Amino acid sequence: MSNLIINGLLQSRNPLLTFRRFRGKINIQRPRPPHYERARVLEVIKPYYKKPEFNAPCIDAERAKEMKSKLDNPYETIIAREARNWFEHSNLVAFVHVNSIKQEDMFKAQVALHRHNVSVKVYGKSIMRKAVADTRFEAILPLFEAKTAIIFSPEVQKIKQVLSVLKKTPQLVLMGGIVEGRLLSKNEFMAYATMPDITTVRAQFAAVLDSVGGKIVGDLQCHQSQLVNLLDAYAKTDSKPSEASPAGEKVNC
Description:
Keywords: Ribonucleoprotein, Ribosomal protein
Family: Belongs to the universal ribosomal protein uL10 family.
Number of strands: 5
Strand content: 5-15%
Shape: rod-shaped
Largest sheet: 5 strands, antiparallel
Number of helices: 9
Distance between the termini: 157 Å
CATH topology of the domain at 74-194: Alpha-Beta Plaits
Protein name: Large ribosomal subunit protein uL10m
CATH class of the domain at 74-194: Alpha Beta
Subunit structure: Component of the mitochondrial ribosome large subunit (39S) which comprises a 16S rRNA and about 50 distinct proteins.
Helix content: 40-55%
Organism: Anopheles gambiae
CATH architecture of the domain at 74-194: 2-Layer Sandwich
Structural class: alpha+beta
Radius of gyration: 46 Å
């Protein structure tokens, strides 16, 4: 009985698998239509795509742009407020185009400028649009189509140090700047660096005004001095003819 149970009931048999080739040749180009029930199911679940309009990509891009402009990012607002503060409290601002540069070289340039109390900032186009919109700095927005770094300094006299550092870093290309609220091109910015400081110019201007005033006083007193010299010479001629000057001597003013 035990042998019957072991051999007949508890013994497991492995199924025999037999692979058969399809009896007909499969036509890939014109396949056989599916069964009726399957065809109904396929027809129900067939996806339906709406035909897009001719200018749909343009409309979708414009709609996405409007939605992006309506979204207000609080972090960008804070950074834009900081950037505007830098513009309003800096007497010297330089715009530098950043070409391909190693971060090590960029850090060296920032350290060299920091030693002269000059700061370097990099802002995106969206932040700059919020920072300078409806201000007197709005004309600088086209400069931020590519990666642009901004150099800020509260002292105008640091312009020579800025140009010296930029000369040693060819990857940073000067595009222009703002000096004391006036937008300057690259050539005007470099010409401004060759000018003397305001103290020297004031001293030169005061010297010119003083010289002009002295010349005017001399011209006004010229005829009076000439008359006094002639009268003095005439008086000496009457008293000491041998020691006096000739009566007809002229005195140059």
